[in-house]
Amino acid sequence: MVRDAFEHVFRRQDISVARVEGESFHRFSRQDMIEEIIKAADRGDNHFSHFGPDANLFKDLEELFRSYGETGCGRKRNYLHNHDDVARFGHPNMKPGEFTPWEDLPSGADLLVYEGLHGCVATDDVNLAPLVDLKIGIVPVINLEWIQKIHRDTRQRGYSEEAVIDTVLRRMHDYVHYLIPQFARTDINFQTVPVVDTSDPFVAMDVPTLDECVVVIRFKDPDRFDVDFPYLMSEIHGAWMSRRNSIIVPGGKLGLAMELIMTMTLCPIVRASKMQS
Amino acid sequence: MSRKHPIIAVTGSSGAGTSTVKEAFEHVFRREGTNAAVIEGDSFHRYNRAEMKVAMANAATQGNFDFSHFGPGANLFSEIEKLFKTYGETGTGRRRLYLHNDEEAADYEGLGAGEFTPWEDIPDGTDLLFYEGLHGGIITGDVNAAQYVDLKIGVVPVINLEWIQKIHRDTSQRGYSEEAVMDTILRRMHDYVHYIIPQFKSSDINFQRVPIVDTSDPIIARDIPTPDESLVVIRFRDPDDFGIEFPYLLQMIHNSWMSRRNSIVVPGGKMGLAMELILEPILRHMMAGK
Known about the structure:
- The complex is a heterodimer.
- Chain A has helices spanning about 1-15, 30-40, 60-70, 85-90, 140-155, 160-180, 230-235, 255-275; strands at about 15-20, 75, 105, 110-115, 135-140, 190-195, 215-220, 240-245, 245-250.
- Chain A is an alpha/beta fold.
- In chain A, strands 5-6-7-9-8 form a 5-stranded mixed β-sheet. A two-stranded parallel sheet of chain A has the order 1-4.
- In chain A, a hairpin with a 2-residue loop joins strand 8 and strand 9 (about 245-250).
- In chain A, helix 5 packs across helix 6.
- Chain A starts with a helix and ends with a helix.
- Chain B starts with 6 loop residues before the first strand and ends with a helix.
- Chain B has helices spanning about 20-30, 50-60, 75-90, 100-105, 160-175, 180-195, 245-250, 270-290; strands at about 5-10, 35-40, 95, 120, 130-135, 150-155, 205-210, 230-235, 255-260, 265.
- The longest helix of chain B is centred in the middle third of the chain and has 19 residues, at about 180-195.
- Chain B is an alpha/beta fold.
- Chains A and B meet through helix 6, strand 6 and strand 7 of A and helix 6, strand 7 and strand 8 of B.
């Protein structure tokens, strides 16, 4: 949904982008990660997960953001999710779950788009947020996130419910310490809120549809982007304000809201960058 | 289940809105002249406050960091089951009180805050038993209290909201550090997922408060969403069971709407009204059936 909204805006505004996926900054390939989780468990660490610093290359990600911001260059690689990716990226002798070799970003992009779990991560050693010009958080409420994960992992990937619950709990420590704090640093948060009963996420197997949700959109500082709330409310049927910096839109209007907001916020950034170069 | 001695259980953590439910029931009980035997979940803790600290420390030395008030280690689940069973059969049973603070303890010589009063029998002649606490629908390998309850009500905030409330209360009113509160939340997560959450799938009615302001970082979002900044999702397991008339509710509750065939959404400020409209006919029906 976010990706689609961005794509539409980039296409219409004729913006060329260099894309980076969060998973390409995982420290371990799929196979290595399985071994690392077992090793961690052996030394009594049951919290090892893809959410935390040990399983990610936060330093390299910071370096990419810094060098791109300064010079428009930097290093990226791709994570091969599946056989389609293997074919698409042209590495026939590699396996799904592995990374392509590091390579330079294509030159001449107007901006860099990172999409993943750690766009604003901060630890004792790294701090990404100051390097990012537009920080967007996509946050489902936890119950909804759990429903979605359970639904996906049990139906599509064949895991048992108990195994998924164990994974959710194992990752909770890193989730709370590394993922959640990022959303206090973002410029705009989109939070999908179901209006159906999610009190037992481990049972509510029907993932709420968009029509069964509302979306809370919060601007940290509406003035920075000249957010025109009356305009948004007139364009988005059924929208209303819940706080001075927050607007609620019906779930089905999420795509429309994103495009309106992205156009509003991205264009000034790209204009400013083009004037500099 | 007992027509003669019915049991109502409100399950949910404090702050989730259980006090709003309790007030709604109190209004209805008063208007209907119902004499309820009230049971508080805290009174079925296994340990008093001082003992709990020791038990937690002991568990930690044994490598168990998941010991919490949510799970079987710290609660007398089989006593809850026994009380529900006995009350349903005979209209009586054993109860005690947990003394939350000095004010409550003042009436009991020799007892202090954080201690229990001695067990005593519920007096004869009550119309129904009203349980309010964390475990009104508890089912484990050994215990099934849920089977004896005639009306099971769940009061459930979404997890983010529950965290905000706990963090707010513990840091601002009880002087704990944020880090300490977070540790407690994580420590209790295992029991929360395994013992608290599963209860809500068998509730007859769930009330779930849903904030419509950004709660993506509950640790930073310190302002607890006000009722006006939330919606309440009310779900009936089987609307026919209680003769629920949605058109009537939609008409009586301004700005309410249906989100699924068995679910109605009401503005947060209308939660009390919705509860009274829903609960009064159910209670009346229950009393008429005796």
